[in-house]
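seq/struct pair 1
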Amino acid sequence: METEVAEIKRIEGEYRKVIVNKQKMSEKKSENEMVMSEFKMLDDEATIFKMVGPVLAKQSLFECKDMVQQRITFIEKEIARLETLETEFQGKVTDKTNAVKKLQADFQKIVMQAQQAQAAAQQ
């Protein structure tokens, strides 16, 4: 039973990590969506500079929009993957918790039977 409880704690730890990563990815997605909306407000001929080390490098608006859209797509896929993991971990924790509850119930039954047998033997 101790190994089951330890396994539940391990899974819950991994589950927490998945939740934190999912939150971070959601924040990044929001940031990138804001950047994309700002890009959409610009004229097609607007000059955009990107910080590359200590230098500002000129980039086209099309390249920037494409890069941000690729990032958003990647982040959406990552969020979907993390949601799948989250669901799997929830299922595993539920299964393990049910297994521990069953073990406890079985143990209590055995104890009750032993107490009844002992009481019957004393009479």
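seq/struct pair 2
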Amino acid sequence: PPRQAEREEGKRRATQGTRERKMSLRKAVSGATRLPIYFPNMLLNAMPLDKAGLDAVAKGLMPPQLKFRVVPSVGKLEIKNYLKTIYGLDVKRVHTANYQGKKKTIRTKSRIIYYRKPDYKSVTVELNQ
């Protein structure tokens, strides 16, 4: 089968180019001893501080608790590691609670439209003082 041989030759050429690029990247980075940096694919929405947190900020201290809203697929360890590596926070404990999005209804003259807000996870982070 000559066509199969041509396909295999094409695949070999395609992978050879990427192999050469990887080798040149390794040569360029070989002198560096830094670890690779991974950027998380999550969004932390900060919620307003409670009274104790506002009092601590007024005194120039870090609040004892922080609250966030995230997508439900994010885990506790991901949140803890994210806050530790990106912001340098010393996290003591992470509490999470899953919530369903609210169901809404819009009534117009001709029809009724139902929709739902997205689900979310509420995260409370306790910090070491």
